[in-house]
Each structure stands twice: as structure tokens, then as C-alpha cells.
Amino acid sequence: MREVFLKELREMFRDKRVRSTAFLGPIILIFGLLFLLSTVIGNLAKPQSVKVHLLESTPSAWVKRFEAEKYQVQFVKSEPEGRKLITDGKARTLVIFDAPGSGKVLKVRVLFDESEQLGQIGKERILGVFRAVNEKKLAGYLKGQNVTPEMVSEIVPEAVNIGVTKDKGAGEFLVGFLPYLIVIWAFYGGMSSASDLVAGEKERSTLETLLISPVSRTQIVLGKIFALGVICFLSSLSSLVGLGLFVGVRPPGSEMMLNKGLGINGSTVVLAIALLIPLVLMMASLLILISSYAKNAREAQTYLSLGSFVVIMPAMFSQFIGLTEFGKAAWVDYVPVLNVANHLRLALLSKPDFAGAGVAIVVNLVLALLAGWIAVLMFHKETIITRA
Fold first, then answer.
1. 136-147: per-residue pLDDT in tens?
2. Which residues pair with 52 in a beta bridge?
3. CATH number of the domain that 103 lies in?
4. Of 12, 57, 97, 246, which one is least surrounded by beta carbons within 10 A?
5. 254 with 334, same domain?
6. Is residue 160 part of a domain?
7. How far apart are CA 261 and CA 242, in angstroms?
8. With contact defined as beta carbons under 8 Å apart, do 89 and 67 qualify?
9. What is the pLDDT of residues 182-223, one digit of tens each?
10. To 5 degrees, how large is the angle CA 219–CA 221–CA 224?
11. Are residues 252 and 129 in the same domain?
């Protein structure tokens, strides 16, 4: 088995496709995606990135107010013109100051398109400008009436965060993002190699030579599974390399994404490795099983592409499980892929569930043994060469 393991490992590391797909792929993807998102977030955080459209008849005091807040002020001649710009996607917001009504109340309308995210962001920021003006006017009125804020009875609600702090746990963006990518690349990292390990050897007629070697067929299967498992494991960890590069570069906007830290400490790393080892063994066993069933590399690629959806669906659900009550549900521990992603999420939140993680480890180990056992049975049949 050792000889087969080392042979397959050497060949996979020599393969440029494996190196680029399994190792460079997650690094480039994660760094590029995080860099792009941080750039977008950084631009949205700047007031000058928000445009506001005003009627030409807008009082000059309000024009100066928006300019003081560093908004890009643009004028339109009439309300219909402004409405058309918004519906055409050429404007995000239109602020209209109506004539004061009874009690000299200044009525202001903020027109926006709810289906446009920038429109929603612009609307909220503009409303914030008016709220600040109202608070300032109220404070001035109370002062003129010799009334201090302490003399005014009011309800002062306070939201106190007793959960994740800056020094404990990761931000919600990383909590939803990292486990998904770590789990996904445990499969996709080995997918590019799996079709060649068995199906490719059938096609090249080199499998017969391996089968008549002194090494037992069980050892051949185990050697291939462990070699592929190493690739899957390293590919999964490569996603953390991409994250490390992003943290090192710290592009504009990254502060908002990393404001609560990474949530990675010694116990998190140990638990993550303990969860990933059974997962990659299960992935590698399934990949070898599919490759053994296929007649050639092209057929294996077809089956692997279809099988990837079985991995993607639970992995995608792990991104939204925090919005449900299922995060602590017992049944989640028995769902492959989802169980690992969910426990990685809890670990990043500094809320590890060691008992549930133990169940997930056992479940994935059992599935790995089952898939490996079936693959061994297939190798002990002569039909493994042709699958006739």
C-alpha cells in the first residue's frame, strides 16, 4: 500500500492540472473574491459614493447641507424627470421638499427603487441626514425652553451584545463564508485527479499492470484513497492560505469584514483538522468509487460533475443555517458535508459543540469505510478492467 500511495501522490503532484486546480484554485478564488467584496464595501462606506438628486427649486440651505455631508448632488428640472431617471436605473434617489403644511411642518419625500440595493442604501443615509437635523433642532428648542434632556421623559432602549466580541469569534461574513469554501474544496480539490486514478488507467490500459503486481488489490485501493485524501486535505487548507493573503494585504474595506477578527485559535484549528480528516477520507473514497465504476475518464468526469451537486447543496445550506433554528439540531450531525460545515461555523463563533462534532466525525468515517469497502469489492472483480 505504501508504494501505491507514494506513487499516486508523486504523479498527482507532478500533474500541473492538479496543482492549479487543487491548490492555486482556492487561493486565487478566495483572495480575489474577498478583495473584490472588500473593495465594494469600502466604496459603499464612503458618503461621496452616494449620489443624491434634487429639484432645481430645492432651498440652497439643504443643497449646502448635502454637500457638507459629501454627497454628490445632481439636479433635475422636475419630479417626472427624476422619477424616470430612477426607473431607468440612472439615479438612485430623488429628494423633494414640499411646501410646509399646517403647523409649518416641512414635508420631504425620498423617492427610490426598492429593488435596487444602492437605492435602499442611499435612502437610509438620506433619512439619517434628516434625523440628525431633527435631533439638533429638538435639542436647540429644549435649550431655549430651559429644559434639559434629563427633564424629558423618554424611552431609551439599549441593545447589549453579550455574544461575539472583537476578541472572541469571527464576524458573521467569515462565519458564513469560510466553512462553505473549506468543505467545497475538499471535494473539488480531488475531483480533477479522481478521474485519472482508476478510469484514466483503464483508458490507458495501465490498470492491468498494477493489478498483477505483488501488491494486493485492497492495498491498491487504500493507497489511491489515501493519496487522493492528501490532495483533498491540502486543497481544503489552501482556502486558508487565500484568506491569509487577504488579511496580510488588508485592502480598503477589509476592516469592516474583519472587525471581529478571524475566530481562529488553537482549539479551532485542532477541531477543524479532526473534522476534515474523516471528511476528506469520505470524499476520496467516494471519488475513487465513482472513478472505479466509470469505463473511461470522460465518463468519470460526467459522474463526478453530477455528484458535485450532492456536495454543493448541503454546503450551500450551511451558509444560511445560522438564519434558522437548525444550527443546534441533532439531525444536522448526521448529514454529511453539512455536519462538518456547521461545526466549523460553531467553532469560528467560539461556540464549539464537541459532542456533536464527535457524531459528525463518526458518521463521515462510517461513510468513508463503506465507500472504500465497496471500491475494494469492485477491485476484486475482473470486471474492474472493463466494467462489462
1. 777 776 677 666
2. 73
3. 3.40.190
4. 57
5. yes
6. no
7. 16
8. no
9. 888 888 888 878 888 888 888 888 888 888 888 888 999 999
10. 105
11. no
